[in-house]
Amino acid sequence: MAVRIAALDMEIASVKLVDNNCFRSGFGRFGRPSGVSMIRRVSFISRKAGLSQPEFLAHWFGRHAELVRQLPGLRGLRFTRVDRSAPESAAWDGLGETWFDSIPDSDRAFATEPWRAMLLEDREQFIGESQSCYVEEPAGFEPPDAGTS
């Protein structure tokens, strides 16, 4: 199964769904393959029922982004408003991207307290549904600034 999402002027590469996780071709499940500088966790997000898109975006770009920026090991962060989903029934409102050195580093970051509890509580305020996958970045890739310095 391939997933393709168009968000504003960018397109995410096709990825395969494996055991409810997405991987680009050739990506190992546990860590980083040689020649890969880091991984990107891509999250497709829809807003909670009853929340307007402006309310969703204000919370996501504000309070939620502040929490995510504090995750240990975060190398990069980008939130993008989705202009149109294909198929339209997907109805995604946002695309969140976080960069880490490896999948285990990402898993540890999202499981680390107190961020885990704060993120789970915050998600209940504005997120209706989300799905995430991991893609590899080539050696030498520089992610967007996470604003963690």
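Above is the first protein from milestone M3; the second protein from the same milestone is given next.
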Amino acid sequence: MHDHQAVLAKLAEGTAFMLRGSAAKELWGIGGGLEERMSKCTGGEANGLIRLLESKRASQTQSCKVKDDVFGGTFTLDEWLKTPRERRPTTDKYSSGEQLPKLLHVRADQPNFPALKRMLQMPTWFEEANWIWERPTSSDPSRPKLPNERQAFLQLVHARQYTEGHVDNNGTDTIIKVLAGLVLTACWSQSLEPCALGADGRLEDRKIDGEGCDDGGGRVSVMDWKAFKSLPSARLFLVRKGDVVFLPAGTFHYVYTVETKVAVAVDFMNGLGWQRREAAVARDRRIDPKAKEGIGPLPELFRHGVLHIERPRVQKAVDEGQQPSPGRRAELQAILDWGVKLDKETPAHGTAKGPPWPTRDPDVRKALNLIYGYVNPWKDA
């Protein structure tokens, strides 16, 4: 994979994939110093991360505490990491069996670690192309802020912890880079396996009693590896330090942390693969009609992406006389195709509240016309 357009095209195909080695470093290097400093940690990488974060506090290290919202309580990172496994608190929020909660799962702007946001800088192409990425309002005062704009999340997870098969943030892609540790990740696509899976797309359809990953002798899930192996979209990754896993929208993934890991996770969305995004949202709505739509309704994200991300990028390219690459052309054509689809779904009587339906918004129409002219210049001749 030679450039980011190839990465975006691969995501649009809908099957999970992984980059490692020079490709991972070149296309998904973490700037700001965190990745580089993690590579120099001594005395255990998890301990090294804790020292790195705590050293940036103005107050005493011992006061560096994090509140865990999963099960409640406040702990220093050092206290939790050194707690014997059998005494660590567990949670059943994401599972019918007990699991250990993540030691650390925080946004880049976590107040306890003021230097973290500076040390977690995503690739420039990712920030420029991502419709849901949090951007400084100073760069575009006219751009409305999404309610749940995304930042990078830093994770620190104990060894021998597992997470049942699940989908993250329906409608968006998830990208995870491991900075330390060893992780086994099994992935399969809900949208590519409509007949092979159950109604909810899960593979853990049975529970057993006795000792399991939770070390508590309770009820634990068991992956149906035989069923997993039969799925064409099944992918099994052994993720090492420096590797990056890309999970397209609608991708289920089961995660087992072999060695205590440090990882950076981000969400991504653009116009490519919009059919898969809609399918993932529809699936969640069928399973739970009251479920929230991830970061927001897809038509509103379409409006936001077209007006405030793609229009400025295309206008800049037009002003500078740049022609779209084949990959960029395909990306923009997908946006136009999605616009046609949304146009056919225009509510008969408009919307009850809020802005007009995206493709009936005059500003959105102008932006789509700009994109069309940029992608098909010969048709204007």
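Note on the second protein: The domain at 4-269 is CATH 2.60.120.650 (Jelly Rolls).
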